[in-house]
Amino acid sequence: MCCWCCCCIIILALVALIVALSVTLTRKHKASPIEPSQWLNLTGYPPIPTGVSTIAQPEAIVEISGCVSPATIWSCALPKEEQAANAPSQPDQPNMRLEISFVNGSVVNSSMTQTTRRRRDLDRVSNAVSAGSFIRSHLLRIRGQPPTPSPGVPSLDDQKFLGNTTDGNSPPFEGEQTPFYISFIDPTKVISARLAKRSGNPFQNITSLIPPPSVNSDGTAAAATLLPLPSSQPLRLYNRGLPTEHYGFYSYFDRSIFLKSIQPTNSSFGGVPADTNGGSSFDSATLRCTWAQTRFLVQIWTNAGKSKPLLQGPTPTSSSAPSPTATDNSSANDFTRPGSFPYPVTITLDRHGGTEKEKMIYCYNMDTDGKVIDSSGAFVLEDRSFGGVLVNPTEGPFSNVTVSPADGGPGGIDGGTGGCECQWANWLQN
Ligand SMILES: *[C@@H]1O[C@H](CO)[C@@H](O)[C@H](O)[C@H]1NC(C)=O
Ligand SMILES: *[C@@H]1O[C@H](CO)[C@@H](O)[C@H](O)[C@H]1NC(C)=O
Ligand SMILES: *[C@@H]1O[C@H](CO)[C@@H](O)[C@H](O)[C@H]1NC(C)=O
Ligand SMILES: *[C@@H]1O[C@H](CO)[C@@H](O)[C@H](O)[C@H]1NC(C)=O
Ligand SMILES: *[C@@H]1O[C@H](CO)[C@@H](O)[C@H](O)[C@H]1NC(C)=O
Ligand SMILES: *[C@@H]1O[C@H](CO)[C@@H](O)[C@H](O)[C@H]1NC(C)=O
Ligand SMILES: *[C@@H]1O[C@H](CO)[C@@H](O)[C@H](O)[C@H]1NC(C)=O
Ligand SMILES: *[C@@H]1O[C@H](CO)[C@@H](O)[C@H](O)[C@H]1NC(C)=O
C-alpha cells in the first residue's frame, strides 16, 4: 500500500517536473532574438535609437525616371513579387527594418562616449529589464572590434565630393565619425530559399565590361531588387548643431528590375503597361536590367524640431498605442505607419557618385523558363544629367575623367544634381 503511494508520488513529481521544464524551455525558445529599440544618449552625439526599429509606409516624395527610355526601366515601386508582402502599403511605399548598434572604442575620444543619465527617464521604464541593464548587456554584446561593413564604405574623397556637390552638407562635407553602425534587415518574414549567385561563366562576346548576369543556382534570373540590405555601415554625423543636423551614410549597389519590353513605344509613359509600377513580374519578363553603382543614401534628421513631423498612422483604436520609445520588442515588428523609428528619415536612391568603369545600365534577355541567356548582355543609355547639372560628369564605362584629388580631380564622379531618383520620407512634407 505504502509502496504504491510512494510510486504514485514519485511519478506525479516527475510529471510535474517534466511539465515545468518543458514550459520553461519552450518559453525560452520562443523568446524573440530581436533586440528592441532603445535610446542611447552619449555626451558627444545626438541621442540615437539603438536596436531594431522600422520605417513603415514611407511616402514617395520624389520619383524621377526621365533619365532613361522607355521610362519604365527605372521605377520607385517594389518588384511585383514583393508587393504582396508589403501590403497594405502601396508598392512605392517600401517598408524597411533597420538596426543601429554602438561600438565603444571606435571613437578614440572617450569624453564623447559617456552615457548621459536622467533619473526621471530611467524610472519611467516599466519593463522587468531595466533600461540600464539592457543597455549594459547590449553594449557588452557588441563591445570590441568595429564590424566589417558590407558593401565596403565609399572613399572619403567620394564622400567629400558628394557631400559638397549633391547632398549640400556643411563643412566638413564628409561629416564626422561616430561610434554607431547601421544595418538594414529584410522587412518581410518570408525568407527566400533561392540563393542568388553570380554565374561563373563570363562571356567574351560583346564586351568584358558588362558584368555576368545574376542568376539562381538553376540558371533562372535572380530576384529583382529595389532596395539593398547593407550591413554594419558606419554612421557619420553631418551639420552638427544646425537644424539640418543628421546621421547618415550611403553605399552603392546593383539595383535590378524585370521588364517585358524596352522597345520605344508611342505611349505617353514610354513603355508597355505590364512594366509600370515596379517592372514586369518574373513570369512574364523577357529582360532583367541592372543599374550598377546605384547610390542608396540614408539621412536621419536629429535636430528638425517641429519642422519634420512624422507621418500620421491610422487613428489609434485604443489608448494603449505604443510610444516609439517603448522598450518592448514590438518596435522590431511594427509596420503600421510611420513605424517605430522615432526620428524623421529621408531615404534616397540616385545615380550620383560611384565607380566610373562599373557604373552602367545593362540588360540580359531571359527565355520563357526565366533562364538568363548568357550572351545577351547589352548596354542601355542613361542621361545622368536629366533635369539637373552634373559636376564632373561621366558618360558610362567608356568615358575617362579625372577623379582622384592626387591627379587633380575633384574626388568623385557625377556629383551635382539630375538623373533618375527615388526618395522616401517618414515625415510630412510642407
Ligand atoms: C574630446 O571631446 C571633447 C568634448 O567634445 C573636446 O572638448 C576635446 O577637445 C576632445 N579631445 C580631443 C583630443 O579631440
Ligand atoms: C565607453 O568606453 C569609455 C572608455 O573605456 C568609458 O569611459 C565609457 O563609459 C564607455 N561608454 C559607454 C556608454 O559604455
Ligand atoms: C535620450 O534622448 C531621448 C530623445 O531626445 C529622450 O527622449 C530620452 O528621454 C533621453 N533619455 C535619457 C536617459 O536621457
Ligand atoms: C565644393 O564644390 C564646388 C563646386 O560645386 C567647388 O568649387 C569647391 O571647390 C568644392 N569644395 C571643396 C572643399 O571641395
Ligand atoms: C558570341 O557567343 C556566342 C555563343 O557563346 C557565339 O556563338 C558567337 O559566335 C559569339 N560571337 C562573337 C562575335 O564572338
Ligand atoms: C508611333 O507613331 C508613329 C507616327 O506617329 C507611327 O508611324 C508608328 O506606327 C507608331 N508606332 C507604334 C508602335 O504605335
Ligand atoms: C517579445 O515578444 C515576445 C513574443 O511576442 C513576447 O513573448 C515577449 O514577452 C516580448 N518581450 C518583451 C521584453 O516585451
Ligand atoms: C584615361 O586617361 C588617362 C590620362 O588622360 C590615360 O593615361 C589613360 O590611358 C586613359 N584610359 C583609357 C581607358 O582611355
TrEMBL record:
- Listed name of the protein: Glycoprotease family protein
Q: Which intervals of the chain are annotated as region Disordered?
A: 308-339
Q: Which UniProt keywords apply?
A: Signal
Compositional bias annotation for Low complexity: 314-327
Q: Which domain of life is it from?
A: Eukaryota
Its lineage reads: Eukaryota, Fungi, Dikarya, Ascomycota, Pezizomycotina
Q: Which residues form the signal peptide?
A: 1-20
